[in-house]
Amino acid sequence: MEKLIIDGGYPLNGDIEISGAKNAAVAILPAAIMAGKGSCVIDNIPDISDTKCIERIIESLGAKVNRNNNTVTIDSTCIDSWDANTEDVRKMRASYYLIGALLGRFKKARVEMPGGCSIGVRPIDQHIKGFEALGAKVKIEHGAVVAEAEKLVGTNIYFDVVSVGATINVMLAATFAEGKTILENPAKEPHIVDVANFLNSMGADIKGAGTDEIKINGVKELKGCNYSVIPDQIEAGTYMMAAAACGGKVNVNNVIPKHLESISAKLIEMGVKITENGDSITVESSRDLKGVNVKTLPYPGFPTDIQQPMTTLLSISKGRSIVNESIWESRYKHVDELKKMGANIKVENNLAIIEGIENLSGAKVVATDLRAGAAMVIAGMIAKGITEISSIEHIDRGYPHIEEKFNNLGAKIKRVKID
Ligand code: EPU
User: Fold this and answer.
1) Per-residue pLDDT reduced to its tens digit, 69-78
2) Residue 198 and residue 269 in one domain
3) Which reaction is the catalytic activity of this chain (predicted)?
């Protein structure tokens, strides 16, 4: 086991390169198993434990997977199993994408119930609704989702809630359905568009991803392709929050500024200077910031995955801020940790009411989940004194080389082994 030890109080300055998007990569890797011919060569796969976990799962199904730095080559022609049942499957959320991918390709899938961050109830009823509408029979058996169909037939599917996972999963299965499928009320996150683009590169016929309606004309087979994953909107947003909180001037490079508009807008409202320049965003902050109200919403709204780092930033911003977490019911575990560092935050149901204080003070804290971990790293970097963060395996699930990247900007973070 490892922990991070942070000596806080240093501004951040310089350039940071953003890696490929975790939540696109963890869908694109399972989608690659739908190629019955040729290999997929996928670039810009972030070096994080979640992508490595998915790679092992795909291998356990019989695919050949080879990683060379950030490029992963997948030959799925020899997949001989539709049963995903390893410990890795149970560990991570995105393993649910194997249901759509296997059901599409083999008309049969058995996938152990997915795990993931503990941020509230995480139902998959909309995924199941979509599979059933396409003609599959779905049951939960001995802790696994079992889906089967004689054939999949395209149809209109209206999602009752906007769900990233359900939109992608049903899009995967519908790629191999006979005729046309229309997904209404889909999620529009950048990674939805990226997965659709990847499927189209393999030979799928998907239009409208990123809009209110996704139209999928079913195809009979997919083949390997070359593809590069988009930059990570959430990693970029986290570094923007960190630069704003620590003060200094940071160029956040290799980003798509459009994907970051809701984050940039809030930072500007707080008094941070944001400049866009091609595929780079410069964040300049004096640390003298004013509090704002934030409500998390599906894209293009403010992302829930940035709510936790944002709470840290607001804890040292002037005045009262109110955060409204509208996506997940239990995504405030980081607040108890921030309170150990002196933050003045009260949680009432899905609201966090924050009274800004001058500064945090270093303490021993826990990374209770992935984005909570990022929030604590930022807290440690701004706090007076030493902060120790344990359970950092959560952070390693989604942020490649986090201490190295922050140290390059002037932070003082050490990773140490513990018993
Ligand atoms: N929901 C349902 N029924 C469903 C599916 C979702 O009611 O069948 C509800 C959820 O309970 C939640 C809301 O719909 O209240 C949104 O859930 P969504 O399905 O969009 O979330 P997800 O696909 O499980 C992905 C990301 C999360 C991110 C959310 C929202 C992956 C692997 N995970 O989860 O990322 O918070 O979308 O943007 O893509 C993270 O990266 O830290 C993370 C948790």
Assistant:
1) 999 999 999 9
2) no
3) phosphoenolpyruvate + UDP-N-acetyl-alpha-D-glucosamine = UDP-N-acetyl-3-O-(1-carboxyvinyl)-alpha-D-glucosamine + phosphate
